């Protein structure tokens, strides 16, 4: 059997335990290290990266209450929160070990142990450790992949970033305004990252993608039996953000009757699930976003005025891409490098190409620019990048071309509607006779 590449740390003051555990686990894992003193754990973790720690629960003679193990487990978790820790315990300490599971232990092994059980427990912990590391790598990639939006030569965007530095450490409600594709999600995440809640969850709720009939259940949760399919008590997305930040995207889509419920939650910091009379204390910070004109919706009695005043303690308007052309070169170079690497090509962008990009209206903003650059890289041969801009340019006012392909016609109509309404998804969808969700799906289909 081939050994699995993994680093295991075993900590126990009994040399016989250390020897037998090491001999057995060395059959399956490449590196197994032992320590006979828990005070050596933190120095060892600072010098080497381990996948799993096996930790005894008692180290001091005459003290068998398991508090030593719990203390050192908390110390390990302090510097490595995702580290799987397997506790080793005697039969009489099982209840304490079960309690330790609630505090973050991965598993516990009874001494004297069954060798197969020991291997199975450690092997599972190694797999969990690997998945956690991959998840963190992915999160770091995702975060860095969006950082280009936070780099800007535009005075307007630089002012926004400076404002975020002031706003983030507070709990003030923030309303982000801007067209679709301008980076509202990235800025919301940046506010959370710079806030005092950055160790707690950041929960994104896209109200534009939730069916109206499911709004309340998805957002606020429900009690078992509250409606036909409510088979168990279920927390809503806001409740899952306890201690952290809730980013309510497309807030203009929230129905009036739920606007009242949201207003109550913001004012009282208490939440009631569907079918419940009890109120649950909530400690969350709210960030809101929309590409709609909320003041107009207030005047049309489609949005509560008192809620509008509550959500815009600080209001930030993000300029569209055509309003920050100083960043066009920055963005195009970033996307060109990204997709050259992805599709294994070497390409350069000419000065004429930059001028061509700057002359387009970009109703889909940065998102549309990214799709355009990816498409251009795919269709270009090695050498100079051949831009593949959207079919309808800024100065294009001709009637629909004489084509019979339904998909081509559909794409042209969508682009015309977005151009007509300057990228406003709600207005374009209404003009096309589509729901917002249906228009989003078609935009993604055509790379708009």
Automatic annotation (TrEMBL):
CDD domains with a match to the protein in the record: AAA
UniProt xrefs under PROSITE patterns: RESPONSE_REGULATORY (PS50110), SIGMA54_INTERACT_2 (PS00676), SIGMA54_INTERACT_3 (PS00688), SIGMA54_INTERACT_4 (PS50045)
GO terms assigned for molecular function: ATP binding; sequence-specific DNA binding
Domain of life: Bacteria
Name by which UniProt lists this protein: ATPase AAA
Residues covered by the Sigma-54 factor interaction domain: 150-378
GO biological process: phosphorelay signal transduction system; regulation of DNA-templated transcription
TM region positions: none
Ranges where the Response regulatory domain occurs: 7-126
Keyword line: ATP-binding, DNA-binding, Nucleotide-binding, Phosphoprotein, Transcription, Transcription regulation
One Pfam family, short name: AAA_lid_14
Modified residues (4-aspartylphosphate): 56
Organism for this UniProt entry: Chryseobacterium piperi
